[in-house]
Design a protein that fits this description.
Elements: H1 7-23, H2 26-33, H3 40-53, H4 71-83, H5 91-104, H6 107-119, E1 124-127, E2 143-147, E3 150-157, E4 168-174, E5 185-191, E6 197-203, E7 209-222, E8 226-227, H7 233-247, H8 251-267, H9 280-309, H10 315-338, H11 367-374, H12 384-395
Parallel strand pairs: 1-4
Antiparallel strand pairs: 2-3, 3-7, 4-5, 5-8, 6-7
Length: 398
């Protein structure tokens, strides 16, 4: 495996930087730079700008309207967006449901959903976890019973990110109730505006409303909306989860956060009256995490090489496991960098329109909510215990 920089990739990186500099709306750039939370409108605006450029679906095949970039080029693109402070894009349409539709869907399903999913006209959420089926996803109990040309869906999902804003959900439902649990699951695309769909907000410890509990009460879903074969959804779910776990490694985001911490450390005092950036203990801790991130980046290169060679294994579990721990550790270092100014944070100060002066440096207001939000990283997208089992069984062959 050759990790040397490719001249074409270097040119592509420069092109991406130039496009972002010219195309990212200044008001969005200012909000992300100030640490303000971006809105659904911000993400959708940026999504549509990328779609108009033809860069919104890097890994999709060209026949589905994608770029068909190699994985390494996709990584460069995502890293440059993170480093430039672009608003985060939802992974649900492009990295999750889109590939499932164009890989396993019928031509009629592709015609109905792919263009709107790609271009940002359809907002998606994921319906996997349930109160009794999180890490043990095969235990899900949401039922879909055939009724003529429809299914009648009853049950509920939990921890549904952005479910209150979504137009559609890709959901795992139980369509058979005997035999092995994994063999009775199907994938349905559910209209979130259909009668019988309701949601209850879940406010997380950082004060944000991203998560929801979703209820289905006699929701009628056309059988046309089932992706692939009935009762074969577990196969499609594993395909999707591999994409999700690789994306939760947070390598570009952690790279950006290290750069930001260095800026903060250069402005903050240390205990002996000097700069925090010159404190040996702080420098050693941050350098150690930077080395770990470089090692993870090399692991990512190996995974990308395997994908290109057609022998992709379960690298997503490795990337997710290590990447989330690095992300959590960096959030702790960021808290240390802003020290006591991180404590008196005000939720309202994270949103546009807040006009009271900050308590301490402006960059300190995001440290505590970011730290608290990152606690979930080792649980969401497959808990750390699940990742270790996957690595032990499917990577190490134990």
């Amino acid at each position: 495996m050759d990790l040397a920089n490719d001249a074409a990739d270097d040119t592509f990186r420069k092109d991406v930087r130039a496009f972002i500099a010219a195309s990212l709306p200044e008001d969005i750039r200012a909000r992300t730079r100030a640490g303000l939370r971006t809105s659904k409108d911000d993400s959708q605006r940026w999504h549509k700008i990328l779609a108009a450029k033809g860069w919104i679906a890097p890994s999709w095949p060209k026949e589905a309207g994608g770029c068909a970039w190699e994985p390494a080029r996709t990584y460069i693109f995502e890293e440059e967006m993170a480093m430039a402070g672009c608003p985060p894009l939802s992974p649900f349409p492009i990295k999750m449901v889109g590939p499932v539709i164009y890989t396993f869907g019928t031509e009629a399903q592709k015609a109905k959903w792919l263009a709107g999913t790609r271009d940002g006209d359809m907002v998606w959420c994921q319906g996997y976890s349930e109160p009794g089926a999180g890490s043990d996803l095969a235990n899900l109990q949401t039922r879909a019973v055939a009724d003529g040309d429809d299914y009648i869906v009853n049950g509920g999902k939990i921890w549904t990110s952005y479910g209150h804003q979504a137009d559609w959900m890709f959901a795992l439902v139980r369509t058979r109730f005997d035999g092995k649990p994994q063999e009775g699951i199907s994938v349905l695309l559910i209209d979130m505006h259909a009668p019988g769909v309701s949601h209850r907000p879940i406010i997380t410890i950082d004060g944000s409303h991203i998560l929801n509990e979703i209820r289905f009460d006699d929701v009628r879903v056309p059988q046309f909306n089932r992706i692939g074969e009935e009762n074969k959804g577990w196969t499609y779910a594993k395909f999707l989860l591999g994409n999700e776990r690789a994306s939760i490694a947070f390598i570009p985001q952690s790279t950006h956060l290290i750069s930001r911490i260095k800026e903060i450390a250069g402005a903050e005092p240390s205990g002996d009256g000097g700069r925090l950036a010159d404190d040996p203990a702080f420098r050693a801790r941050l350098a150690g995490l930077e080395i770990e991130l470089d090692a993870l980046r090399t692991t990512n290169e190996r995974v990308l090489f395997d994908v290109k060679a057609g022998s992709a294994g379960n690298g997503g579990a490795i990337l997710k496991s290590k990447g989330t721990f690095i992300s959590q550790a960096l959030s702790e270092v960021a808290m240390e960098a802003v020290h006591h100014y991180g404590l008196p944070w005000v939720m309202e100060a994270l949103y546009p329109g807040w006009n009271l002066p900050p308590i301490g440096p402006d960059y300190a207001k995001t440290a505590t909510p970011h730290y608290m939000r990152q606690r979930a990283n080792t649980i969401e997208g497959g808990s750390e215990e699940v990742q270790k089992n996957v690595i032990a069984k499917q990577v190490l062959g134990l």
